[in-house]
Fold this protein.
Amino acid sequence: MKIKYTLLKQEENTKARYGKIETNYGTFETPMFMPVGTKATVKGLSVEEVKDANAGIILANTYHLWLRPGADLIEKAGGLHKFMNYDGPILTDSGGFQVFSLVKNKKKDITEEGVHFKSHIDGSKLFLTPELSIQIQNKVDSDIAMSFDECPPASASYEYLKNSVLRTIRWAKRGKDVHSNERQALFGIVQGGAYQDLRKLSATETVKLDFDGYSIGGVANDNESKEDMYKAIDYSVPYLPEDKVRYLMGVGEPIDIIEGVIRGVDIFDCVLPTRIARHGVAFTRYGKINLNNAKFKEDFTPLEDDCDCYTCKSYTKAYIRHLIRNNEMLGARLLSIHNIRFLIRLTEELREAIKENKILEYKAKFIEDYYGKNK
RNA sequence: GCGGCGUUGGUGAAGUGGUUAACACGCUGGUUUGUGGCACCAGUAUGCAUGAGUUCGAUCCUCAUACGCCGCC
């Protein structure tokens, strides 16, 4: 089967919504946070640890898997789920985001046919098209495939963005036309920067193509301001169907997840929890903390007193600091486990807040705690 | 006791008679939003063993003292 979204409860004061997604691997509630497992692994974590965090869908990346180990090998292994031992739903990003960060000359390398760029591994010349991206995703057999879109920087001009939006719509159609995996859902991506008319154009035209879900892309990159990010959501959501899931790509920070939910977004993904973990930083209810800081040297309490994650149940800040300072890999692992659980727990709490029509109160309390000075 | 060499920040060290004493590590803080994993950015010696002298000016030259290493008695 393909993915099926059901709206269970619309919050009364905002666009926030509580729903469920039925997938090949069970039913999951939204709002939801998807841990990122780019190269068929959530960095540092076993699939058991990912599940212990109560994760639903996880994200893998077409570009990275295409280069290594290759789609054919994953097919031989019996598909991505068997290959990485994850019997939960997997979404594959199309590779658009990666590819455009590797493009050298925008005018020359981005053509109607596809995108020319160089491998980040050996510099060899590669060419990715909307069709090829979908074919790779069909082959690795993820549960949700993403259309191949252009992801321009936030600083792009209106004229550039307009052409980009139109091209992304044409690419979405081409990808859909070759999509052939019966059990795999396919999502369309809305672009258009922070411009209202471009988001409307992108959303309405993409919806006409009838995808299984829709994502809002081109957000949270290139030092984009939060205001522009929120605009991009506000200008996209009204044109998306109510009975399809909405996915905000690459977000993010706790406050951005909250703002996204309030604006009607259902699912999120972000590298932040695992990346900051590798650099020694943990999310907490009272803001981010850097375990490198000297003040944690003799702090024998958990990262968060009331956190239910494995790390908080077992280890102290002083110990994690010691691991991080000495570049011991367990440190990054423990922080990754906590940070992923933190964001998933945030979405669990947002669901409860929506059910009680208290999403704005939840946000106010969160801001007070997270950005307050009384730590 | 005599002779030689050395003494620069938390550490290893570069360096010059003249505005802000290199670099590395460490340390202190920060950044990170569809991941080119363990990165990047910033700060970190009002002072160059101590005292005296030469000089317009000394960390750099001279002398003495202390300490360290090596050799000789």
